Amino acid sequence: MFKKLKFTYKKTLMKAKLILTTLFFFSCIICFAQTTEIKKVQFPEHYQSKIDEVYTTVKDWNGRIDLYFNPSSEKPTPIVLHIHGGGWNHGTKESQSGFSSYFKAGFAVANVEYRLVQVAPAPAAIEDIRCAINYIKTHAKQLNINPDKIITSGGSAGAHLALMGGLLENDNRFDKNCTEKTDMRVAAIISNYAPTDFSDLNSEMSQFKSLTRWLGDKAGDLEFRASVSPLTHIKKSSPPVFIVHGNADPIVPYEQSVILQQKLNEVGVYNKFITVEGGKHGGFDQDKKSEINKALFEFLKTIKLF
């Protein structure tokens, strides 16, 4: 009798544990869904959107892009190609939504995803951004945008890709997956706290684990490291560059933007560099963000983008 009761007790206890585990599991799913809710991009009523358009396909991976544009504008508009950051290993286009200043200025916006290192190491992400530029150029008429007024923009790893996409100009070494041949030059680049030079194996930047992971089995190849470093591709014909970096950045050394401006100045490329005193890796206060935004649009006016 005692053994039977003991068995029944154990069986009841196991069922109770199973129920509690199941409840905990589903409560975690609910919490996760709530904390990862994605806010939709708010755009003007006279704009249109195309969401998850496929701009390139590599094997079984489809590169997708969200487009917000003004089909009723009398003149084709400028467009900002926005590239999310995340150390080349995380991040989504859906996490980006702060485009209201561009919409107010009459700009179109393209918000792009690219292959993270889990899908493919370097130079895959660069190849994707080049194909995104190609897609915008070859669909300019349908989007009512000016193909000569494309701006690449990003933060951190996204800024690295914005620089690479623009500084390569008509160097087609990373364009093998792009669908059509076209002029690949852009009008300007916005670089927020970007890694820019990977050539020195002993530099502080080269200790960045996300960079080593992204470079993969070519991490020790100096020629390859140079080929995916924005500094390598700066020349007299490079597009203007707007640079922002906090001088207390604990992730991407401030020096990376300093040497970027130095190289641009050496060859005579127009640029604007805003140093955020005491600034970390983004996350600047609202007053500083407003100051940067004002300076950005003054910069874009100076180079006649609107």
Tags for this entry?
8 strands, 306 residues, 8-stranded mixed sheet, alpha/beta, globular, Rossmann fold
First-to-last CA distance: 88 Å
Shape: globular
**How many domains?**
2
The second-level CATH architecture of the largest domain is 3-Layer(aba) Sandwich
Structural class: alpha/beta
**Helix proportion range:** 25-40%
Q: How many helical stretches? A: 9
CATH superfamily of the largest domain: Alpha/Beta hydrolase fold, catalytic domain
Contiguous low-pLDDT stretches (5 residues minimum) are 1-10, 16-37
Beta fraction: 15-25%
Topology as a string of helices (H) and strands (E): HEEEHEHHEHEHHEHEH
The tally of strands reads 8
Average pLDDT number: 90
Largest sheet strand order: 1-2-4-3-5-6-7-8
Brief summary:
By secondary structure, the protein is α/β, with parallel strands linked by helices. The chain has 9 helices and 8 strands. Helix 3 (124-138) packs across helix 5.
Task: Explain how this protein is built.
This protein is α/β, with parallel strands linked by helices. It has two domains: 37 residues; 259 residues, Rossmann fold. The chain is 37% helix and 20% strand. Helix 5 links the parallel strand 5 and strand 6. The longest helix is centred in the first third of the chain and has 34 residues. It is globular.
Topology:
Layout: H1 2-35, E1 48-58, E2 61-69, E3 77-83, H2 100-104, E4 108-112, H3 124-138, H4 140-143, E5 145-155, H5 157-167, E6 188-192, H6 209-215, H7 222-227, E7 241-246, H8 255-267, E8 271-276, H9 286-302
Parallel strand pairs: 3-4, 3-5, 5-6, 6-7, 7-8
Antiparallel strand pairs: 1-2, 2-4
Helix pairs in contact: 3-5
